[in-house]
Task: inverse folding
């Protein structure tokens, strides 16, 4: 079993991004041990002055990134960009090599999402993350693909997620 850290760019309860990550965790439960990181909104605002002696929350976040076999980021798009909480979390990793060579799957689940995926890809590439082939997924109109019980119910989206995850999982071997 591979240790996967999943990070949702949304801090909303029952967000579409959480639904996508929960689907992945359930669908691939025989292949991965996935932890959904719950502390993204508890990280202090990034300040390089505090980077030499970061807070306990930042130290814990960095340890989780470093100890994971791979990372899955699933985020919405806010105003044609990444949510501030996700960008802030990533900024706490800039001075480290925590993402260097680490397999990372990128998913943007949003109304549109093109700009957020482009931005996330650029940032992760800059931090030397290993983004395997077919591990970038854009799920447009995600709210219409989740039923009233909060479950992903769109077959095409499920197939795309499974293709994305199979590529990601093969990169972990």
Result:
């Amino acid at each position: 079993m591979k240790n996967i850290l999943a990070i949702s760019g949304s801090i909303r309860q029952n967000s579409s991004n959480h639904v996508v990550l929960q689907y992945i965790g359930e669908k691939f439960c025989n292949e991965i041990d996935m932890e959904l990181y719950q502390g993204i909104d508890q990280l202090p605002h990034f300040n390089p002055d505090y980077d030499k002696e970061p807070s306990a929350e930042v130290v814990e976040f960095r340890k989780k990134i470093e100890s994971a076999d791979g990372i899955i980021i699933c985020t919405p798009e806010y105003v044609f960009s990444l949510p501030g909480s996700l960008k802030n979390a990533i900024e706490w990793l800039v001075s480290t090599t925590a993402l260097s060579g680490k397999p990372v799957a990128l998913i943007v689940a949003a109304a549109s999402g093109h700009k957020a995926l482009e931005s996330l890809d650029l940032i992760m590439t800059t931090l030397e993350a290993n983004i395997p082939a077919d591990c970038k997924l854009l799920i447009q109109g995600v709210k219409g693909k989740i039923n009233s019980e909060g479950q992903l119910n769109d077959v095409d989206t499920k197939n795309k997620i499974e293709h994305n995850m199979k590529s990601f999982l093969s990169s972990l071997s």
